[in-house]
Amino acid sequence: MSVISNASPYYGFYYFGDTIKNKLLKIILSKIFIIALIIFIMTGFVLIVIKSKLKTLLSLSKIDDHPLYIMTYDGGYHFDDYLKIGSKNPQEFKEFLFNKLLFSNQSNIINNCKFACTSFSAINEKNQYIFGRNYDYYGRYASLVLFTNPPKGYASVSMVNIDWVRNFNIFGKGNNHPITSWEKRIALLAAPYLPFDGMNEYGLVVSVNSVNKSKASIDPNKITIGYTQAIRLMLDHARNIDEAISLLHQYNIDFVTTNPQPIHFHIADASGESVIVEFINGEIVLVKSDTPWQVATNFILEGNNKPELSCNRYRLINGKLKEKSGKISDKRAMDLLKQVSNYASTNWSVLYNLNSGQIQIVMGMKYYHIEEIKLMMKTGIITNIQP
């Protein structure tokens, strides 16, 4: 009883006050811990992203004096995010790239450069399907062999004209500025969005050729993407022609976002199918071949009953393939590309093997020097050509 009677009347109050302080302190410390943890996680995420980008850029190496570079992209490049919003003009496209991939907000208008290209599908002496392609673009430009393997897509290799990446005003003016600084190299993070031809691990190959006119439909209920982004769409998400065409129907294909130039696509797959995709009066039109080969250059094939009269390059290649029923050696296929090359504009000639994954590249018409690379292919793809 004496202990109780001698207790301070304020003891309970101070004890209660200290309890409140302790609880407040614990709450504050827990908040600080949570905030610190969030910052730590975010910092770790940022470091992972930066590490991935650095790994991509550090993989860049020069393999030809044209110059031709090779680079392996580490991880994804926000292409699924792009497909959700698309871009209706060059400015929107650039803003997306700068926000998602590039450490810069520089911008300029993409130049209007016309170009002409040649592509053909055929069969080699091993009964494998091959796809030859000349990329013609006036001038001599640094180029890139780009390997990609996105988390939600298929592995592929594609060819990129670095000058088109340069149009983001990071490389400076001129056609062949070497990639000697990190400021210039960073622009290559946008390279997956700018392929002009390529092949994926299922043997789907896509190229784009300019034509004199094209008119695609603009459906307000569809996302709009540029035509090089459409190539990326097909390489990342299509295993064959049917899947590629299905993807194209899901989007508006814009001829201005990448460059104001009407185009058509040439697509082939590991089964030997080949098709030219043209955009006529707002409709997607498929020009299929009733032969084991198909040729595309720079004119509309749909409704053209005499294509041989429309282009010398078309006439030469189609004639040679017809003589051999579409079956030629890899060496002969590269010779055909050489015969239709142009000193002023042929930047690269490439031969894709849709079954083996073997790729042969010639830069700047130096047909005596062939770069050979290989894409690891998915197994189980069987050609329907009999020996």
Describe the structure.
The protein has 387 residues and is of the alpha+beta class. It has two domains: 58 residues; 313 residues, Penicillin V Acylase, Chain A, CATH 3.60.60.10. A nine-stranded mixed sheet has the order 1-2-5-6-7-8-11-12-13. The chain is globular, with a radius of gyration of 28 Å. The relative contact order is 0.15.
**Strands across the major sheet, in which order?**
1-2-5-6-7-8-11-12-13
In helices, the fraction of residues equals 25-40%
What is the strand tally? 17
Question: What is the CA-based Rg, rounded?
Answer: 28 Å
CATH topology title of the largest domain = Penicillin V Acylase, Chain A
Annotation keywords:
387 residues, alpha+beta, Penicillin V Acylase, Chain A, 2 domains, nine-stranded mixed beta sheet, six-stranded antiparallel beta sheet, 10 helices
What is shown here, in short?
By secondary structure, the protein is of the alpha+beta class.
Write the layout of secondary structure elements.
Elements: H1 2-5, H2 11-58, E1 61-64, E2 68-72, H3 79-85, H4 90-100, E3 118-123, E4 129-136, E5 143-148, E6 156-161, H5 162-166, H6 182-185, E7 195-200, E8 205-210, E9 223-226, H7 227-237, H8 241-249, E10 251-254, E11 263-268, E12 274-280, E13 283-288, E14 294-296, H9 312-323, H10 330-339, E15 346-353, E16 358-363, E17 371-374
Parallel strand pairs: 2-5, 9-10
Antiparallel strand pairs: 1-2, 3-4, 3-14, 4-15, 5-6, 6-7, 7-8, 8-11, 11-12, 12-13, 15-16, 16-17
Helix pairs in contact: 7-8
